[in-house]
Amino acid sequence: MKKKIFSILIALSFVLISFIGAHAASTAKIGFTYIMSGPLSAYGQFAKQGAELAIKEINAAGGINGQKIEGFFEDSTGKADVALRAIRKLVYQDNVDILIGLDSSGVAKTVVPSIEQMKTPLIITHAATPDVTGSVCNKYTFRISLNLSQNVKAAALIAKESGAQKWTTVGPDYAFGHQSWEYFSKYLKELNPAANFLPQTQVAFPPFKTTDFSPYITKVMGSKPDGVFISLWGGNLIDFVRQASSMGFFNGDFQVLMSLGGATEVLTALGDKMPEGLWVGTRYWFLANDSPMNNKFAKDYFTTFGAYPSYNAHGAYSAVYAYKAAAEKAGSFDKMAIVKALEGLKIELPTGMIEFRKGDHQAVTDAHWGKTAADPAYPHRILKPIKIFKGADVTPSVAETGCSLGAAM
Amino acid sequence: MDILLLNILNGLSWGMLLFLIAVGLSTVFGVMGVLNFAHGSLFMLGAYLCMQAMQYFDSFWFGLLVGPLCAVIVGVLIEKFLLKRIYDRDVSYQLLLTFAILLILDDAVRMIWGSGYHVVDPPAILSGIMSIASQDYPVYRFFLILIGPLIGGLLWSFFHFTKWGKIIRAASFDNIMAEGVGINVPLIYTAVFALGTWLAAFGGALAAPLQSLNPSMGEKIIIESFIVVVVGGMGSFPGAFVGALLLGMLESFGPVFAGRAQMALPYILLAVILLIKPNGLFRKGV
């Protein structure tokens, strides 16, 4: 009996909550889904900080269309089923007006096809797989961050200039690592037909959980390449760089390109252990753009959180502002109107001007690469010189992405 | 030839680190009958405490000394206030409790030091490269290769030649009889858990200059330690040594010979051992 009353109470409270949720819509609600726990929780932290900074700024300036905004944060844990559950909760229970987030490409690939049923716009800010604005794209899904193919295209352009012919790779043994290598080989082959790539048996794909990279370092050095393309990231990249430099990997026998070596969390952790003169890429670099907007963002972020903004902080921050721009353009918070307004939207972000391309909803955004260099003003390596690849030059055509958004809405 | 030598060295250095961690796990199980899921978290705690101590004393050696000792204090508290209560209960209680400790330790470390990556430098004398058979190799890894057998040898002598070691072995054979002849078994248990904690934390401190520190670093190592202990035989000292070497070599040569299949190699080894020698290589039948 007691149990029954209890469950009725719970059911009642759910009804009540959803009731309140549906009717207290005097604020615009943004649902964020990031990795907030587990080994990669640092990425969720960065995103949350970026998002909170944007929300604070916008609310202080009067909100969007006169309404305050409110953020709801959910933990994806980096697992597809958990992320999907979190997103369903945000949409159906918290009644958010827009979804922002997603770190893992694997999660994104599972979530994106279900977004159509939820009829809620989603702005991806980190997950880089080309597929979510390619083979599985849909009209509700947008991506504001640099994706894998854009970043790797920039890598291929640098690789071509380096003159190195015989290339190999070290990448994490899952879709991201393999796709990075596949795109790198494809793009570089187009740019430099003389380039050749070591066969699958000779390249190195250490599993994500690897902490001892020495066998892979030995293997790559033993294959005597002219250039090594590295798509490891986060903790894997930190471990790799330290172990590789102690084994003489960076002594100049070959070119080294790291597609995500310019991430601030990697540079900060490594400090002066990051060798100088390596080509590294990143989705956002806080010193790359001397615009007032970027300087203000980097400065405010630093004073609030005591660190330079990482690309994930920038992605979440930017997505909130993109939502603001779309809602103001549409003059409403209606989900369909937002989708329409986001399409083709041009907006200035700290990283520079971007445009959500109509054909696949991928932001045409600049790719940042640079050579690692010491600078007394910073406790970690910075990028000097910086090479900025214009979004239009590194973004593949819509036809190439394989995205088809169907008939106009 | 060069590649062969390098891979042997890679396998040895990783294997010796694994040995230190696995032997602690194995000893705790052998003496106390407790399968400690939190062993990996104590490894992680050791690495963080070493880093913290290094910041106070500005010396890796102090970190290596002080960090694991601080972890031992945590270990003793865990044994005295938590583990002690469930020795006479079903084994599932141990699993639940040690798993809970794992979660608490991981989140405590996350709260104190944050979830970002941290890096520890090896001491100047151990950084850099030295040559062996005209092959360059990091000094720190040689240090690891040497310290494994050194600690192992000390432990082995302790268990076989000292009075205390003999008492511990006696208590592990038959704790009721040991209590009957006047041995303070609860004290022995606390001491053994402290030793196990020290081994895990010492392993963590040694691993700190090799890999980045992250609250989840323990979760990765605990799986490999379990494989080592099962392959070598639960509670067996030489078993942990041989198991760790086997796994180290397998992980080092795997990427060369097996390509992508190398991920499965440790588990295949585990399955094969369980099929042909369910008690592990070195444990006598129960």
Keywords for this entry:
heterodimer; A: seven-stranded mixed β-sheet; five-stranded parallel β-sheet; 15 strands; B: 286 residues; ABC transporter involved in vitamin B12 uptake, BtuC; two-stranded antiparallel ribbon; 11 helices
Structure at a glance:
Chain A is of the alpha/beta class.
Number of domains of chain B: 1
Secondary-structure element string of chain A: HEHEHEHEEHEHEHEHEHEHHHEEEEEHH
Spatial ordering of strands, largest sheet of chain A: 7-6-8-9-10-14-15
- How would the global form of chain B be characterised? globular
Number of helices of chain B: 11
What's the helix-strand series of chain B?
Answer: HHHHEEHHHHHHH
What is the quaternary state of this protein? heterodimer
The major beta sheet of chain B can be summarized as:
2 strands, antiparallel
**Biggest interface and residues each:** A-B, 37 and 44 residues
CATH topology of chain B: ABC transporter involved in vitamin B12 uptake, BtuC
Mean pLDDT of chain A: 90
Sheet/helix structural class of chain B: mainly alpha
What spatial form of chain A do the alpha-carbon principal axes imply?
A: globular
Give the uncertain stretches of chain B in residue-range form.
none
For the CA atoms, what is the radius of gyration of chain B?
Answer: 19 Å
Low-confidence stretches of chain A: 19-25
Structure description:
Chain A contains 14 helices and 15 strands. In chain A, the strands form 3 sheets. A 7-stranded mixed beta sheet of chain A has the order 7-6-8-9-10-14-15. Chain A has a 5-stranded parallel beta sheet with strand order 2-1-3-4-5. In chain A, strands 11-12-13 form a 3-stranded antiparallel beta sheet, covered by helices on one side. Chain A is 44% helix and 17% strand. In chain A, strand 1 (28-34), helix 2 (41-60) and strand 2 form a beta-alpha-beta unit. Chain A is α/β, with parallel strands linked by helices. Chain B has 286 residues and is mainly alpha-helical. Chain B has one domain (2-276): ABC transporter involved in vitamin B12 uptake, BtuC (Orthogonal Bundle), CATH 1.10.3470. Chain B has a two-stranded antiparallel ribbon with strand order 1-2. The termini of chain B are far apart. The model of chain B has no long low-confidence stretch (mean pLDDT 89). Chain A binds chain B through residues 38-39, 41-42, 45, 173, 200-201, 204-207, 209, 211-212, 214-216, 218-219, 222, 234-235, 238-239, 242-243, 246-248, 265-266, 268-271, 273, and chain B through 2-3, 6-7, 10-11, 13-14, 110, 114-119, 121, 127-129, 136-138, 140-141, 207, 210-212, 214-217, 219-221, 251-256, 259-260, 263.
